[in-house]
Amino acid sequence: MISINTNSAASAAAYNLGNINTSLQKSLQRLSSGSRINSSNDDAGGLAVSMKLSASIRRTEATQSNVNNSMAFLETQDGVLKSADKLVARMSELAQLANDVTKSTSDLALYQTEVNTLKSQLSSMMSETFNGVSLFSGAVTATPATATTLSVVASQDGSQTIGITQANLASVGVYVGTASGSGIDISSATGAKNAISTVNAGIQNLAQLRAYNGSEQSRLNFASDTLSLNKTNLEAAKSRIIDVDVAEESSKLARFNILQQAGTAMLAQANQSSQSLLRLLM
Hints:
Blueprint: H1 8-33, H2 44-98, H3 105-125, E1 129-130, E2 133-134, E3 150-153, E4 161-164, H4 170-176, H5 189-242, H6 246-273, H7 278-281
Antiparallel strand pairs: 1-2, 3-4
Helix pairs in contact: 1-6, 2-3, 2-5, 4-5
């Protein structure tokens, strides 16, 4: 059937050209944005999964930041414990120096003056804080309290926690003292002799505190490494869903360009075909 009112070939060519133009625009958008999914109708399921992965990535980053802050807490704590180690070592040295038969009572009194000053400094160390959080617990015991007092979330879903200790520096002070009149007294020969073993007990507790601190830092380091790996894997999973394959999409773009040119030419040809009917009327 030959008709003037309806040009089916032109309609079909226009329909196909419209679809090709839509595909071409999507391909251009994907390549320009770098994303395969630019709207929900591109891939509704993929978009939903990528949104959940994005949230997991953000939570992982936040968790890692918190773990790093906890690491800084322990590093600051260890810095104070290191200073306390030097302080107690000096007390031990003074106690040994006081165990000298050639020292007079006035000499021993001078040694005790320095010891009292060191005691006051140790007392000041016990009140050190990190961002307003106490580095040390206030319990006064003869043995270090190693029970965890702070809980650090170590996974993005909150299911894993790591305990860190507010070190019991008072367990050192209970031996060497934290003020004049407490702890060791080397102002006499007898006191100086007894002070050596007392200071050694304080050093033993301090060593235990630093050992616990080091083990907790080590565990947090492993937790931070795990979070970094999890973040990398989550980002890779999200990339596989939402990122465009540039090589593949470039090939599609070239194909759509060719089809668009061919479709435009065929639409023009279909529009021209109806003019041949005029010859039948002439």
